[in-house]
């Protein structure tokens, strides 16, 4: 569905992504793990069109989208919930969700998706009229994911959804990611929480300073010695 | 000093201040989403007046058609200025955009001098607006009543667009976080161009009403109202539309009252506006209704 081919990206004077090739198949959860600065976020931002690649291909549903403007990438169905949540704190929760559905014209389905988001995240319904800035960190993360779902994504890109959340909320976030995937949405997940990410992923890639170090099914990587040592904190 | 004298001055202040406010709305809209002080705003207002002038005197349009067309053409001019001058420096440091704005301002003024000549031209005022009526001892020109009503209507329309439409939501999102707004599928450039269109249309409407008061126009007429409207926008809290209108009204009332109470100081009238600007920037830089700026 989404195929990245020998992608190189220079970002802020650094060769941040050095020839990455990866593949996300339909209806799967694929995760990308790696330390801070490994190039995970740059890769995701490049797929979304926020950063221009130096060379390489990003093929989505058969056509090359590398270097396309971000709003057109979003309209193609590649939707990102960015790192740090980035909800619009000056808008109400409801308005944030409407922003997710900004470019959709199928208004009846938008209504349905709104109900769906509210049923996944009942808290958002309770707080629909509140400014998003008054939500807690966990609630804002729910809103960021809910807002992305409102776009009816073909593929959902999640950049560090568990960052800065309390442990109890983290497991809730991963439960929700699984639920969204079960309902048929393809997911590309970036995480520093390697254990949690790999345990829900169908396939995983390990990124080290801009290159792919390892790849395999989530279970394989969880059992891999190098992964266990470097990312799961085992000695 | 009796009550009707004071009431008269306040009414005069409101009718002048309403125009400052309407022009200030354009400043504040653009600042709100781009953090750019569009110093060409007053000159865009001037362009609007010339469109209206030529509509009537060269193309013999009825005044209302000419005014309406002028507002639309000025909105289009605002879009062209955004695309031609500001879009190329969108990702440059903010100071580059500010310098560009000053450049656009000089360009428009001098283009005006070349194309329209520096000689002031008499502006048109429809007959029915020239009547003066007396209400409770206060004399008001019909033009000022209608100007104020129209100003409030336009303010209402602009507030509606910002708060209750899809485009307005996108504007508020850009104001907060342009990059994330792109991820929502919003064509940010299009929304910014629309913002310039709305601000420029408001400037043209304000300018035409301004021109009818005096009633004459010249290519440098936009400078002082432009600067005053900028003061009004800062006074109200730049970025806040309602604040811009309040700031305009307040500035108009202060100015008129000063001149009325101390006629000997009438020469300092413009200086007052800038003294207010300095005081606001010193003691309350966020203005009356401004929120804390994110950076």
Would you kindly provide a written description of the structure presented here, covering whatever features stand out?
- The complex is a heterodimer of chains A (235) and B (295).
- Chain A is an alpha/beta fold.
- Chain A has a domain at 1-77 and 192-235: Rossmann fold (3-Layer(aba) Sandwich), CATH 3.40.50.
- Chain A has helices at 40-48, 70-76, 93-100, 107-120, 122-126, 137-149, 167-182, 194-200, 218-223, 225-230; strands at 2-11, 14-24, 29-33, 55-60, 63-64, 78-81, 155-159, 186-191, 203-208, 211-217.
- In chain A, the strands form two sheets. A six-stranded mixed sheet of chain A has the order 6-7-8-3-9-10, with helices on both faces. A four-stranded antiparallel sheet of chain A has the order 2-1-4-5, with helices on one face.
- In chain A, helix 3 (93-100) packs parallel to helix 6 (137-149).
- The longest helix of chain A has 16 residues, at 167-182.
- Chain B is mainly α and 295 residues long.
- Chain B has a single domain (3-283), classed as Orthogonal Bundle (ABC transporter involved in vitamin B12 uptake, BtuC), CATH 1.10.3470.
- Helix content of chain B is 72%, strand content 4%.
- Chain B has helices at residues 3-34, 41-57, 63-86, 94-116, 142-164, 166-176, 178-183, 188-213, 223-236, 241-261, 269-283; strands at 121-122, 132-135, 138-141, 216-217.
- In chain B, the strands form two sheets. A two-stranded antiparallel sheet of chain B has the order 1-4.
- In chain B, helix 10 (241-261) crosses helix 11 (269-283).
- Chain B is globular.
- The mean pLDDT of chain B is 93.
- The A-B interface holds A 48-50, 69-71, 74-75, 79-80, 82, 86, 88-91, 95, 98-100, 102-103, 147, 151 and B 166, 169-170, 172-173, 175-177, 179-188.
